[in-house]
Design brief:
Strand content: 25-35%
Distance between the termini: 50 Å
Number of helices: 1
Radius of gyration: 16 Å
Shape: globular
Helix content: 25-40%
Order of helices and strands: HEEEE
Number of domains: 1
Number of strands: 4
Length: 86
């Protein structure tokens, strides 16, 4: 495989991985904003070492864990995030 092809494949993989990460973070942001009754733009998300997201906004905070679920009905997957109990 020549160098330009390798670089192209590497870039494609990085873009796909970034989409997965940002998809989980966006789902955690949406869920926590709804839970806190806070605008999404005011939410601050921090990824923790354990893979969960710490959400802060509007004077509240919480930890959200996200999982990828296949949606067989619509032939696609969705991120589902839920608050982690303390």
């Amino acid at each position: 495989m020549n160098e330009p092809v390798r670089r192209g494949l590497a870039c494609s993989l990085l873009v796909a991985l970034a989409a997965c990460v940002s998809g989980a973070e966006n789902a955690a942001r949406a869920r926590s904003a709804d839970d806190f009754s806070c605008p999404r733009a005011e939410m601050t998300m921090t990824k923790r070492d354990d893979g969960a997201y710490q959400a802060q906004g509007c004077g509240r905070y919480g930890v959200y864990r996200c999982a990828w679920h296949e949606d067989m009905l619509h032939d696609q997957g969705v991120w589902d995030c839920a608050p982690q109990s303390r």
